Amino acid sequence: MKNPDKNGFYGEFGGAFIPEMLYPNVAELQDNYLAILHSDTFREEYRKLLRNYVGRPSPLYESPWLSARYGARIFLKREDLNHTGAHKINNAIGQILLARALGKQQIIAETGAGQHGVATATAAALMSMDCKVFMGEIDMARQAPNVERMQMLGAEVLPATSGSKTLKDATNEAIRYWINNPGSYYLIGSVVGPHPYPDLVTRLQAVISEEISTQLENNFGQAKPDYVIACIGGGSNAAGAYYHFIDDSEVQLIAVEAGGQGIASGKSAATSQLGRMGIIHGSKTLLMQDDYGQITEPYSISAGLDYPGIGPLHAHLIKTGRSQVYSITDEEALAAGMVLSTHEGILPALESAHALAVLEYTRFKPEDIVVINLSGRGDKDLQTYLQYHKNKHK
Amino acid sequence: MNIRQVFAANPEGLLTIFYTAGYPQLDSTVTVARHLEAAGVKLIEIGMPFSDPLADGVAIQHSSEVALRHGMNLDIMFKQVAEITRTTGLTVVLMGYLNQLLTVGAENFLQACRQAGVSGLIIPDLPMDSYAAEYQELFHRYEMAISFLITPRTGEKRIRLADQLSSGFLYLVADNSITGREEGHFSNNQIAYFQRIKEMKLSSPTLIGFGITTADQYFLTKKYANGAIIGSKFIRKLSTTGAVSRQAIAGFIESVTRN
């Protein structure tokens, strides 16, 4: 269940629904990615960079406050401590090595809030590769510091001016550029897009679940948790945190979507509940759309969760009941983030705060081992937190 | 006439015009078709506006956004297309994205096409293997032709497969680019590609599209294929005329077909 079939399908979800113009680009990746990922040179260099450059393994921290509050042994997988502040770098480093193995000189990427763009620009700087990042015009205005940061890293940031001028349109523009420039390497940021991207990104993020397993075994004598909790937008941090446990039905997988202002409010990104089967960015999955198949713009306070689709692996896990999905509102996420900051001294990214907030809705046994993937740090969300804090104490 | 019949009836070649339903105005779809017919066009390709048109260049993308803002949707479009096929002799092909079929269900969609008198579909993000496995039988049942795209980078085996699966025409993408590179002439590489395809003696009629703007190019497409599809250039023409004028459309067709 954790890997797709040879055509890239997880059950009924996935595949590669791409125009013929893109076929050779995608076929080149499909034909080569597994051999490169499994090669000794790739594995060795990837491990080395994850250790010495990214700072892995990331700690698995048992939170005394959360454990006492929710009556279980609650662990935080500290992806927020990675270089560049989130799990995104795991994938960017892996794919840039893949790009190099394929002989590519130029990297292109899409970004929403800018986290994946920064991770990609960082990896490209490290490898001295040319980098172009597509970003919706509206997102560029909202996330100006990240735009400047990418530029400082030597990347060119190109505005996507079509459609809703946000992440999905940046992805469209990146794909169009890739069609026109087949020599470039498209470094996609989540477990979305045409096969093999969902599998490729999942495998690169799987270092998270691999470490969780080793850390639990070494420190607590139990190689698997009872629960793994992660937020999902496209779903890359969740796919990585789940991977080694997907085929073990004793581990419960919990996926947390952004409920925005509430599922029924019309301002939400709860894709699995509001979405229907369709095609987005070359993948058959659940996506938010109107009655005529026009893809709608999602909303969440967290820029990393407002993608109108979800990765096909997650659509499959949810549809088959393997993962349980919850949605958390903006307000709940902000409150959970503030609580962690106050009681543990850790300010989580708003995305990760959604995963924390779900603890209010779950019931555990005292001996349960619960791992929450703390996918990123909250520095980028400071303004939003401060505003929330101010309003709260007015 | 269905697609194969219209090719058989026009052995000297066909100029096919693409435009977007609901552009420049919500209700201009039928008027544009009538003016095209009056100007001598036999086969038209109507774009179904989509929020995320991955395979389209800037001009067509923009026309889709405008049409959607006007309130264009599948129900309105099918009504307009039905009026076109009822009141003109035009053969109509629809171009859209797979999500638009899936959202209403492929069978319902094909049924609506058939009721509206549509002869065929072009769905750029429907891969050939997926069509063969899941949709071919349904298309046959509803007598709906499909036309696949091939590009300068498509290998021979895939070209043969596209030829075998296409029940409409083969759409030869002139350039491996969707930005609408419009230079007014074909490069030597492009000519070599057209020649290579011609020598394959495919069974489907072929139309060359993407980036065609001049009569010289149209003349060449008739030499190497069964004609051309012009989209972006026509869309831009519509955008500048404001109200859809019969004269402007006739002038446009004249400008790309005269020797």
Strand order of the largest sheet of chain B: 5-4-3-2-1-9-8-7-6
Provide the number of structural domains of chain B: 1
Average of pLDDT of chain B: 95
User: Which homologous superfamily in CATH is the superfamily of chain B?
Assistant: Aldolase class I
**What is the CATH topology assignment of the largest domain in chain A?**
Rossmann fold
Spans of chain A with pLDDT under 50 lasting ≥5 residues? none
Order of helices and strands of chain B: HEHEHHEHHEHEEHEHEHEHH
Assign an overall shape of chain A.
globular
Biggest interface reads: A-B, 34 and 41 residues
The tally of beta strands of chain B, per DSSP, is: 9
The helix tally of chain B amounts to 12
Would you identify the CATH architecture of the largest domain in chain A?
Answer: 3-Layer(aba) Sandwich
What is the CATH first-level class name of the largest domain in chain A? Answer: Alpha Beta
Q: Report mean pLDDT of chain A, rounded to a whole number.
A: 96
Structural class of chain A, by secondary structure, is alpha/beta
List the helices and strands and how they pair.
The complex is a heterodimer of chains A (394) and B (259).
Chain A: E1 9-10, E2 13-14, H1 23-38, H2 40-54, E3 60-62, H3 64-70, E4 73-78, H4 88-101, E5 106-111, H5 115-126, E6 130-136, H6 137-142, H7 144-152, E7 156-160, H8 167-180, E8 185-186, H9 197-205, H10 207-220, E9 227-231, H11 236-242, E10 252-260, H12 271-274, E11 276-280, E12 283-287, H13 312-319, E13 323-329, H14 330-344, H15 350-357, E14 369-374, H16 382-392
Helix pairs in contact in A: 2-4, 4-5, 4-9, 5-7, 9-11, 10-11, 14-15
Chain B: H1 3-9, E1 14-20, H2 29-38, E2 43-47, H3 58-69, H4 74-87, E3 91-95, H5 98-104, H6 106-115, E4 120-122, H7 128-141, E5 145-146, E6 149-150, H8 156-165, E7 170-173, H9 188-199, E8 206-209, H10 215-224, E9 227-230, H11 232-241, H12 246-257
Helix pairs in contact in B: 2-4, 2-12, 3-11, 5-6
